[in-house]
Design brief:
This protein is mainly β. The protein is globular, with a radius of gyration of 13 Å.
Amino acid sequence: QVQLVESGGGLVQPGGSLRLSCAASGFTFNTYMMSWYRQAPGKERELVATITSTGSTNYADFVKGRFTISRDNAKNTVYLQMNSLKPEDAAVYYCNARAWRVGYWGQGTQVTVSS
């Protein structure tokens, strides 16, 4: 049925880049607002970036200028391009889909930033 599957996480050195992908299925993707969240050990889940159904974006202050969220409605996929990664960016990154009264979560993908 409804699925959000994240991929693209891994180990990267400080200053490096990763591109995360979230493949969606089982709902009308192009009508949903899509977001990326992250959660580090011992911390609460925090919003990283959002993109609306019309393509407008919003970013948390701590990633502005470094991360870019985008979506490809033809592929039912949302992306998070992460550049200039810092050790404090290490976390499990989660994809979220939100509409009027429903929301869905993926299982997350691990990002590790270490030298």
